[in-house]
TrEMBL record:
Transmembrane segments: none annotated. Its EC number is 3.1.26.5. InterPro entries: Ribosomal_Su5_D2-typ_SF (IPR020568), Ribsml_uS5_D2-typ_fold_subgr (IPR014721), RNase_P (IPR000100). One of its GO terms (molecular function) is 3'-tRNA processing endoribonuclease activity. It comes from Amycolatopsis sacchari. The lineage of its organism: Bacteria, Bacillati, Actinomycetota, Actinomycetes, Pseudonocardiales. It catalyses: Endonucleolytic cleavage of RNA, removing 5'-extranucleotides from tRNA precursor. It is an enzyme of class 3 (hydrolase). RNaseP catalyzes the removal of the 5'-leader sequence from pre-tRNA to produce the mature 5'-terminus. It can also cleave other RNA substrates such as 4.5S RNA. The protein component plays an auxiliary but essential role in vivo by binding to the 5'-leader sequence and broadening the substrate specificity of the ribozyme. It holds the Pfam family Ribonuclease_P. Consists of a catalytic RNA component (M1 or rnpB) and a protein subunit. This is Ribonuclease P protein component. GO terms for cellular component: ribonuclease P complex. GO terms for biological process: tRNA 5'-leader removal.
């Protein structure tokens, strides 16, 4: 679970990250990131967009729970003051947690947000627990 301070909640925040930030797309998800050069005391924040195109309510909630868990594990590796919006695409509905995690890591690497420490951990956790 993401701590309350690490959640994007307002639509204005989502809009700012998606319009002003960088974007990296993968088969199952798209990550939008906005990094503030001189971050205030705020921590890294994340928000999720899982539309009806992904599936019915049960499927959407399952996908969002998996993404929340994966992002929470990576929050400490993202630069302070960063804001992320993770948008699930329809193939995310049938993806495993490992596949979503691989896509998330690839997108964060492409954006330059994944540190070497996390890369080493993700390479060693290939058969981690499924969510």
């Amino acid at each position: 679970m993401l701590p309350p301070a690490a959640r994007l909640r307002r639509s204005e925040d989502f809009r700012e990250v998606m319009r002003r930030g960088s974007r990296a797309g993968r088969r199952r998800l798209v990550v939008h990131a906005l990094v503030v050069p001189d971050p205030p005391a705020s921590s890294t924040r994340a928000g999720f967009v899982v539309s009806k195109a992904v599936g019915n309510s049960v499927v959407r909630h399952r996908v969002s729970r998996r993404l929340r868990h994966l992002v929470a594990a990576r929050l400490g590796t993202v630069p302070p003051g960063s804001s992320l919006v993770v948008r699930a695409l329809p193939p995310a509905a049938t993806a495993s947690s490992a596949e979503l995690g691989a896509d998330l890591d690839a997108a964060l690497r492409r954006l330059g947000l994944l540190t070497e420490r996390r890369k080493a951990c993700s390479d060693n956790d290939e058969d981690g627990p499924a969510v």
